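Good morning,

Attaching, inline, the backbone tokens for the sequence recovery test we're adding to the shared suite. The designed sequence is right after.
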């Protein structure tokens, strides 16, 4: 079967298998990005009119999704679905190009794509539509540009590859580390006489992309606040993570969970077999070894990027998937080859059997909880027992806010439900969309004073305070938002006491009405 036919089959199957993700809901992070995207469409400026620790491209992405598909949860899920299909297309192409001298390249590319689909369901709604998942087409695309299908000049390709890394940088700053991977691939695949020039062009593309966006941010007055945010609140948040120092072993354990342990085992077994015996059978083992080392470098860079963030949330590992999945796809073919020498059956039947074993193992053992939870959730949506796109579609807090305020009224949420701003169309009384960085026992004085002063000067019509939002990964205390105000924000406690009535409680959230 031709490579094009295999690719079309894989893409069609991916489109079918991933389509149910269109009905997934929002969670905390997506709610923050949703308000940011909505606010951008209405003329607001990130870091000035609203505040979050993420670089700006995620807000522009959500704004684009709303502009194309309407202001809804479904719009973001549809946009993310299309992003996943683009990622799979690029992933398949990169796998084929890296293994192009091997007879098993088509199967390896197909398995890499299938593994990515499994992992996407492992990630679920919380860990998708994130900065990392939207970075994947940029990172894979940059790698494809510097590994040409045929020998050709890499000058223009290098500039565009650098530009893609530059755009990815403003999705998440650690993405810049993948410039090392792209530079290594460029050095490896370019002729000796073009290496230095190609690397210079790569740097030019990166600097141009970062420089142009930085200039745009500076013109809008957003660059300095973003810089201050990155060097103060973000650094403080990383260092005061309640779960303590994110260790190397914890990093490896979580990466195995994100990749699926069954896939990791196949990857290790398959490549061990190739290194011990099969590499002697390959006509171009040197090219395969070069691709293998490049992918290992990609895995290492991804793990370092996660380590630097000192949190290790599952969505952080999205940047690990492409490089690991291409390795797993190739390893799968090596396992098939080993099994075909032991079992006298047609190779296609062995391939199907091992693939079924992998799927059953993932669903019933190594990724049982996330995959079975996703299955149960989608069955409930299909049967009508659960609303499509989650509780936000019919959220009681958002509906309450809409019923008890005017569009011009401002509200404030001390807690982790920033989606309410977006869903209700009400602006926050302070620029802070969330209070993650106000949960630690010690908060930078300037930021603390700004929060308190903003609320005292412009008391919101409704003041929402969460109870029970004890997230051990947020800050260095385990207090919920109500306790945090009581213990560390006496000014806000007095504000609530003298200017508000605690009239209602919904979804473990006290709703204070201004008197």
């Amino acid at each position: 079967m031709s490579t094009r036919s295999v690719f079309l089959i894989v893409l069609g199957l991916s489109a079918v298998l991933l389509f149910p993700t269109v009905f997934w809901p929002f969670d905390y992070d997506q709610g923050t990005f949703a308000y940011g995207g909505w606010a951008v469409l209405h003329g607001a400026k990130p870091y000035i009119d609203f505040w979050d620790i993420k670089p700006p491209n995620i807000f522009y992405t959500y704004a684009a999704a709303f502009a194309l598909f309407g202001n809804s949860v479904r719009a973001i899920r549809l946009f993310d679905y299309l992003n996943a299909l683009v990622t799979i297309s690029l992933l398949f192409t990169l796998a084929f190009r890296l293994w192009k001298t091997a007879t098993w390249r088509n199967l390896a590319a197909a398995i890499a794509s299938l593994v990515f689909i499994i992992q996407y369901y492992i990630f679920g709604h919380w860990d998708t539509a994130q900065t990392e998942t939207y970075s994947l087409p940029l990172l894979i695309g940059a790698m494809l540009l510097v590994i040409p299908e045929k020998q050709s000049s890499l000058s223009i390709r290098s500039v565009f590859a650098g530009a893609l890394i530059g755009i990815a940088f403003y999705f998440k700053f650690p993405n810049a580390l993948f410039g090392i991977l792209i530079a290594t691939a460029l050095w490896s695949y370019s002729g000796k006489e073009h290496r230095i020039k190609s690397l210079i062009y790569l740097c030019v593309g990166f600097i141009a992309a970062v420089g142009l966006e930085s200039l745009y941010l500076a013109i809008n007055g957003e660059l300095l606040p973003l810089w201050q945010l990155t060097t103060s609140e973000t650094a403080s948040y990383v260092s005061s993570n309640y779960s303590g120092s994110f260790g190397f072993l914890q990093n490896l354990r979580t990466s195995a969970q994100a990749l699926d342990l069954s896939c990791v085992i196949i990857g290790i077994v398959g490549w061990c077999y190739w290194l011990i015996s099969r590499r002697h059978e390959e006509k171009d083992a040197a090219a395969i070894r070069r691709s293998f080392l490049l992918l290992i470098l990609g895995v290492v860079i991804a793990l370092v990027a996660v380590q630097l963030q000192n949190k290790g949330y599952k969505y952080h590992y999205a940047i690990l998937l492409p490089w690991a999945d291409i390795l797993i796809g190739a390893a799968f073919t090596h396992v098939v080859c080993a099994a075909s020498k032991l079992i006298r059956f047609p190779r296609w039947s062995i391939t199907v059997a091992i693939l079924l074993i992998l799927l059953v193992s993932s669903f019933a053992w190594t990724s049982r909880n996330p995959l079975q939870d996703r299955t149960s959730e989608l069955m409930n949506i299909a049967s009508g027992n659960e609303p499509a796109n989650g509780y936000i579609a019919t959220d009681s807090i958002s509906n309450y806010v809409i019923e008890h305020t005017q569009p011009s009224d401002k509200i404030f949420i001390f807690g982790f439900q920033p989606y309410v701003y977006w869903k209700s169309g009400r602006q926050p009384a302070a620029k802070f969309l969330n209070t993650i960085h106000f949960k630690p026992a010690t908060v930078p004085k300037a930021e603390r004073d700004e929060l308190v002063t903003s609320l005292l000067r412009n008391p919101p019509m409704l003041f929402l305070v969460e109870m029970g939002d004890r997230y051990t990964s947020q800050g260095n205390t385990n207090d919920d938002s109500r306790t945090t105000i009581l213990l560390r924000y006496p000014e806000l406690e007095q504000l609530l006491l003298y200017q508000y009535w605690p009239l209602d409680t919904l979804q473990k959230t006290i709703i204070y009405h201004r008197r």
